[in-house]
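Thread: flavin-adenine dinucleotide complex, take 2
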Amino acid sequence: MQTLIEQLTHILEPSALFLGDDISEKYHADWSGASACAPAALLKPKTTEQLSQIMALCYEQNQPVVVQGGLTGLAGGATPLSGEFAISLERMNAVEEIDARGMTATVLAGTPLQVLQEAAEEHDLFMPLDLGARGSCNIGGNVATNAGGTEVIRYGMTRSLVLGLEVVLADGTVINAMNKMVKNNSGYDLKHLFIGSEGTLGIVTRVVVQLQPKPLVCHTALCALEDYDSVTKLLTELKRSLGSGLTGFELMWDNYYNKVLEVDSDLQNPFGEEHHFYLLVEYKDNETALGAERFEAELFGHLEAELLSDAVVAQSHQDAEEFWRIRDGIGELLKALGPVSNQDVSLPIADIGVFSTHLETRLKAKYPDIGVLLFGHIGDNNLHVCAYTGREEDKLLITEDIMSMIGEYSGAITAEHGVGVLKRDYLELSRTPEEIALMKTIKKAMDPKGILNPGRVI
Ligand SMILES: Cc1cc2nc3c(=O)[nH]c(=O)nc-3n(C[C@H](O)[C@H](O)[C@H](O)COP(=O)(O)OP(=O)(O)OC[C@H]3O[C@@H](n4cnc5c(N)ncnc54)[C@H](O)[C@@H]3O)c2cc1C
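Output below.
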């Protein structure tokens, strides 16, 4: 009888099936780097049909698989567990169609987000999802994790951008739900089962997304504030005055801001004095001159009313990029800090200020030499917490402290990075036993043998 690998060689060409030392280390772990492990085999299908045949064989022979997109995930979800086959979607990479009238894009799941963004721009359209990992993360990975990013305050998470999906189920069945319509209430909207399911219910192979008109202008400002109450007041004011033009509201605590500037000496601090909070505000519009005036007048009004302590409006694209480099400096920081408990949590917006003070006090009482860095997409309730002592053995204990406080404040253990493997044991802090039981029922119904991303999420 042929082995599974021999059978797979009839489906995949030799350059798409790798074993042993031929598997590059790139496929051993996601961006978190946690628990790296070589997969038992690496498969790179080119078509949905190939993938469907692979899954039918794996299902028949109880072979567990892990799905890999761009491997920028931070929850360990795409990292192989011992004995798993890794299925990389990287060869399923193409923007199949931009429908300029219907403002939709049809794209293969292994397409990097940035490629889709650029294809939309060529048609004067806008793909309203953006994150620091844009060059490497795939649209399939974005769907699987329901990725958020920096424009959620205006356009919502990936879930709100997806119109249709094609998915291969654990047993190889292909679900073609490539809907292009906003309104379609013909039965259950099955795409929502797969969005955010982190590859546990099916493998996303093609996606239809809703595009938007490309905003003509973008205004960016870096602001300084002294207390969290002013931050939430400003958010309410800007939502009211700028309406849907408000596309970014990124808050940095002084601990994060000062550390980024300390680690990356190329970055410039535009403020002469120290402040408690720094805020990156972005406003996108289709009115050119009027938009700039409106934005500056709005910020000036808040300076006069002393809600803001200071503000600098970017005068060029380069200025705006400099501001964003401070916000996105976390990538470099993580490399410089050594072992870090890097958490992405959600809380009701009014509680974030109290929570952050409470968290810092509690962690410092336990670990006097701890560093705590706070920042996040506050307009979407999302707080990023990086806490480090420099000692590997403290990392898990610090994570447990942060997670248990999230439970106390009725927050979410993950806002946008997903549960994967790294957060799985904390799920009950954010979900009721009945919710978790229903998740398990759905998983059992769709993947009764448990071969698809086993041990992730639940
Ligand atoms: C510098 C940096 C910045 C980031 N910023 C953000 C941010 O602002 N917002 C945010 O939400 N995330 C952010 N992330 C996390 C990450 O980029 C996102 O989670 C992204 O959506 C993952 O996509 P990926 O293709 O890399 O997926 P992978 O890491 O390959 O996989 C992630 C999960 O999805 C599953 N999966 C992947 N592809 C498929 C598929 N086709 N079908 C089914 N399951 C699949 C995997 O099995 C795994 O469980 C950031 C990461 C980095 C490194």
